[in-house]
Amino acid sequence: MKTQLIIHPEELNKKWIDRLADNNVDVLGIHPHGGGESHDSLIELLEMAESKEYRKLIDYAISKGIQVEYEIHCANYLMPREYFDKNPEYFRTNKKGALTPDYNFCSSNDSAMNIVCENAVKLVSKLYGSTSNYYLWMDDERDIFCHCDKCSQYSASDQQMIILNKILKAISTYDKNAHLAYLAYHSTLIPPMSVKPDKNIFLEYAPIGRDISKGASQMPDDEVENINNLISFFGNKNAKCLEYWLDNSFFTRLAGKLTKLIPDNEMIKNDFKFYSDLGFEYISSFACLMGDEYESLYGEPDISSFNLL
After folding, report:
1. CA 60 distance to own-chain centroid
2. Which long-range contacts does 113-119 make (Cβ < 8 Å, 24+ apart)?
3. pLDDT for 44-96, tens place per residue?
4. What is d(CA 117, CA 124) in angstroms, rounded to the nearest whole number?
5. What is the CA radius of gyration of the chain?
6. Positive or negative CA dihedral for 283, 21, 250, 37?
7. Which residues sit opposite 181 in a β-bridge?
8. Which domains occur in the chain, in start order?
């Protein structure tokens, strides 16, 4: 079983790396902010990744036996919004039939997809120290895929699969060992119906709507059935579950201020077993908003539930 904790780039420091190593966490995940901040936060990360200070920290993590992966909402980077003025057809058609640059892009437009693939190669080449597992996520919102005549023949999951297959082919010219995650999240939780994943596409299941105050084993039967369908479709090799147990950004939003995270370690351990029994080989959680400010207020964050040894 491989494990990972994901933090924001600005939270990365030697103490976080040592904390991961002390708890036998296999992978450090770097996640620029999501939502409306996603593009600006990604640009800040890419600038940071050029600095000696950042690279020294990544090198230190790798020297401690910790792998590094980047999980990024990057649709705006892949298809820059400034193209809309001259080429609105590159962008999605919303449910009202209007072309809009608000989210994502048109997966059926070949010229658009050429730009997306070129920028995907550019992006992965800038992810300092990354493994060959890449996570190039679409925009962070629901119901944001394309409804043009061609795209409307495909579900949101199928549209994402079309995009990912093309991106994987492109980034494999940069990294011949490239693997690319299919993020099952929001509108893409249901498996694709008509588009098959290319080799080296793997499942990343992120149950954002789940009640994380309850154990995963208490999910409704239809949600468990959907997980089984996802694993059946993608296979369980490298299948990854991305949870929210230690995501203090979630609890801070609820509280309206930076709050102390008190994890239910017994529940998390039980959830590990639940997900492992379903076939997941890789378990992860966001662990954001537990950086220097958090420590100054509340002390050392508790990530002991991820110490499986």
Report:
1. 23
2. 113/163, 113/166, 115/78, 115/79, 115/83, 115/90, 116/78, 116/79, 116/163, 116/166, 116/167, 117/166, 117/167, 117/169, 117/170, 118/170, 119/77, 119/78, 119/79, 119/80
3. 999 999 999 999 999 999 999 999 999 999 999 999 999 999 999 999 999 99
4. 11
5. 19
6. negative
7. 202
8. 2-306 (3.20.20.80)
